[in-house]
Amino acid sequence: TQKARKEFILKGEDPTDEKVIECCRHQLTTDMMDRIYSNIKINFGHLFALVLAFWDEEETLDINEFKTRLYMIAKTLRRFKTIKSDRELGGEFYLILTDEYYEPFDKALEIAKAQGVVELIDERHISINKKVFFDEHTFTDIRIKNTFLVIYHEVAILDQLIECVKGVLIKPRFELQKDACHYVYSYDEKTFSHDYQTFYSVFYSKPKEVGKPFMLYNPDYSTGMVLSHGYKSAPKEIEDLAHFIHSLKINVYGVRLSGHGTMPEDLRDRSWKDWYNAYNRGFAALSQVSKKIYMAGFSTGGLLTLLAASKKNNKVDGLICINTALRLKDIKFNYVLPTVNMINNFLALFNADIDYVETEPENPDINYSKHYLTSVGELKKLIEKTDEILDHITAPILIIQGDEDPVVDPQSAHTIYDKVKSEKKELVMVPSNHHVIVTRPEKEKVFEAIKNFLGC
Fold first, then answer.
1. Residue 199: CB atoms within 10 Å
2. What tens digit of pLDDT does each residue of 262-301 get?
3. What is the helix (H) or strand (E) element at residue 349, kind and residue range?
């Protein structure tokens, strides 16, 4: 109050009690509101409501474009230190771009449709009814009848946030998609760098280039392929295949499955869902800059390819599965897991335990030699999960299998071929007694089969 009185005196005004109280009331209200809003955490619902509020009502909104713009708003907000974002809008927010069920988005869209705020034009497009959106209703029923207007009012006073949202909404879609691809890929690179540093061993770690995810990208190419390596391996395993595919004018995302390309101890505590999410990072990134999208994988990567294809809302343009690990020959895989508990109970008498088994990999410069039993168990879960969904596959598919594969039972390829419901499906058996046929001389037959399937 003393400060307020001095300001009035300096202005040559009479500092009456009424004037001082009014000045302090205004300042106190401003300070209080600044403190309240500076502590607001922006969440998914806020972004969803703001897009509904500021998207041009005259334009229909493609659902995938909606997701891209939400993702890019979340990424852009990170530039503003004064705006706090909820954890759900962090690194894992790329999941909104995977063309699968994403609970926050799908539930919000259902509410918006039920309340008449949006209307579904077809499977991919919606229109926004601004009249319904800005209908205040009554105080007692607005939360039920117009949920997103209530959410909008929570943050409408935040000028920087509104400016950020409007800025993203006016940007051309193709620019945002390129930015989204970059953000997802950068997140993938940072994740690998963190894992590599965490598990680094001067004696046992392989060069960083072996395990790093990669993207072969030419902006003039409109087709993309997500490509994954196998179990206990790394992106280096699929490098030759990736460069061949890229030579066919197809962009390639070389996936690095979680726990791979670093140290076996990193893989030990990873679940098959972690591998699946890593595969989906590749899809999230590359689908943003591709008019046509293919998914491919070698061995365990083939399992992830099939599983991912079964979950996409929109049919992908084709699948390529190479020596897919649906049935395994390895006696350690089939024998160790069922008996491990019995063995551990016996060895416990001697204060010992079985944690892993050693194997000699085909490519020791790339592959791990340790089989941690927890990891083998996750692989078994992935196999079972994939086996369950084969009859959900309808996309064109190429199945390639080495006829004398020492790891994968060649019958796996026939099982996949028989169970998938794809109208276009091809099975190519390659003469080989190696498992990793994408790095052996017989890779030329693999490449030729892929080229023919793609029609290049």
1. 16
2. 999 999 999 999 999 999 999 999 999 999 999 999 999 9
3. none
CA 63, CA 454: separation in Å to the nearest integer?
28
- Express each pLDDT in 34-82 by its tens digit: 555 556 889 999 999 999 999 998 889 999 999 999 999 999 998 888 7
Strand order from edge to edge, sheet including 214-216:
214-216, 251-255, 223-228, 292-298, 318-322, 397-402, 425-430
Question: Do residues 267 and 257 make contact, with C-beta atoms less than 8 angstroms apart?
Answer: no
- Contact status, residue 287 vs residue 99, Cβ threshold 8 Å: yes
- Rounded CA separation 424/322 (Å): 17
Tokens of 290: 């591709």
Q: Which of 303, 338, 350 is nearest to 322 (CA)?
A: 303
Burial class (CB in 10 A: 0-12, 13-18, 19+), 191: middle
C-alpha radius of gyration, the chain, whole number = 28
Of 150, 74, 166, the residue nearest 117 (C-alpha) = 150
- Mean pLDDT for 206-221 is 97
User: How does residue 342 score in pLDDT terms, banded at 50, 70 and 90?
Assistant: very low
Question: How many beta carbons lie within 10 A of that of residue 107, not counting itself?
Answer: 14
What one-character DSSP code corresponds to residue 119? E
Q: Which two tokens stand for residue 143?
A: 């939360």
Distance CA 283, CA 296 (A): 11
**Inter-CA distances, 225 with 48, 104, 246, Å:** 30, 28, 9
- Of the candidates 318, 235, 237, the one whose C-alpha atom is nearest the C-alpha of residue 281 is 235
pLDDT band at 335 (very low <50, low <70, confident <90, very high): very low
Q: Indicate whether this model's pTM tops 0.85.
A: yes
